[in-house]
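Write out a sequence, fold above all:
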Amino acid sequence: MANLNETATWEPGIFQIETTTPALGGPEGPVNTAPRQLANRTLYLKGQVDTLNSAVNAAKGGATSIDARFRALEKTTAMGDFNFGSTGGATVAHGIGHTNYSVYITSNVQTNGDLGDVYVDKAKNSFTVYNSGGFTGSGRYQITH
């Protein structure tokens, strides 16, 4: 018994055997047309799945899942307390060595509406927090990257 020759092709339709279709076998026989078309589609889809699996495995970067890799990449690097410096700014040193990180800032005490707008200027090994109000009380920072 021989196997059908398959090609990785998406067949636009599947041949339907009619009551008048001759029962002829062989590679091009009408009885094998629908199975060959389905085999072609299956091989085509397998190629698509293999390509997607390769992309997913590459994206995992050695982690158990893409989600695990994202969680490992977006980790808390540093956190601590500082004092707001109003418009003069307050600089916090860290040592990350690049500017591809996020800084989360919160005040530790009530600002009584005196915090104003907050702006963070990031540098490779430090960041400076400016606030437009007169508040100079304590705050907390968290760096993630």
